[in-house]
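Hi U.,

Before I forget, here's the chain from the pilot set. I'm dumping it here mostly so it's searchable later in email.
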Amino acid sequence: MVSEERGAKTPYIVIQPNLGTYWAGGKLYKPGFDKDKVLKFVKEAANAWNVDRSRIHALGFSQGTRDMVYRFICEDSDFFASYALIASIFGPLPCKPPKNPVFEIVGAYDVNYYLLGVIKKNRDLYLSSMGEYKEETLHYDPYWWSYGSGKYVHKRYTGNGYWYEYLVHSGVGGGLVLVTLGFDGGHCLPNGKKLTNYIHEVTCFKADFEVGAKVIDFFIAHPK
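Structure:
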């Protein structure tokens, strides 16, 4: 995907830290320590490549939401313009939210959505900061919750300088155990590269939207 084709004035640079061998039994990710290392690297890259400081954003997937981007939101809102969270886990955000725009994408059949209520928790946290707010439905498919259909609902809430969006989709991944039991099939990356962590297929089988396009459009629309 070329960001200029979607309206960006200049290209984006993607810096992608990985969890490495966690799923294969390797060393465990250290949330505070590794977050600071990643932030330091991003700042050095921004200086080295003369990056527009108004267009630095953070995106997290799964554990990368709770242990990385949640921390960026709470501790580094002066550096980042906006945030995107995909397949968020647990919640709510462990701080009073700053006014940087946030876009959250989660599967309807993700246990973090239907059992742990991650979207409801984060939405309610932002609404409590907004006071009076405006609610907009940006997309609504009838029967969007139909298992594996790829349909989705996309809503936006704004007020008092805050901006919070969420998208809930019905796409599901594969897996040896979890999806067979119908437990956590929605914890997956819509239209992403096929990946696996041995017990769970990370890529959703179907989604009626391109997650990369949704995220990059959100980032382009929300410079600092």
